[in-house]
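Input record (one chain):
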Amino acid sequence: MENYCGTSRIAGCQFSLHPMSRDFENIILSSLEKTDTSKVWKETDDVTTLIRGKMIHVFDITKAIFLHAASTGEHVAMNGTFSIGCPGDTDADAYMDESDTTLNKEMVSSISQKAGCKFSLYPLGEKDYMDKIYEQIDLSKSRGVQVSSTHYATRLDGDVKDIFRTLEESFYLVQEKVSHVTMTFSISANSPSNKA
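The corresponding structure, as predicted from the sequence alone:
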């Protein structure tokens, strides 16, 4: 593979969903089934689920899967990586022709769910990468979430929909300026730690 960033604007997210429940298998499978993934390429194996397509749909689907799982009331965590501009990422180009109408936003709009999230943004190949990261941290403070710093990440606390909106806006604004961007995140809802 050549060592350069591709021109494809296919976005992707590879994530693992972790319900802390004896019913974990049903929670994972039902969350996937309740979410309309028809506008993305999807592959699930024993480690992760990978979705790829237009950025708007990648974020819509990831958020919906997490909300469906968290709405069970069980402690649920999700860890993942968003990426755009990855070298050689051209499979599933057909999904780039989809309209921008999201399929899950309305379905999860009534779910109110608090969560905590840590994310790290990586504008790859940029000398002034820290400036781009700090700009998004500053902007996050006006996006309806509580923002705090932690080692190797930025913490967001608030409603899941506001958290995912913050992640999406941060990712979108950086990828407009940088060809290859990744963003890691860990989000947790219904943690017993918050009940103390």
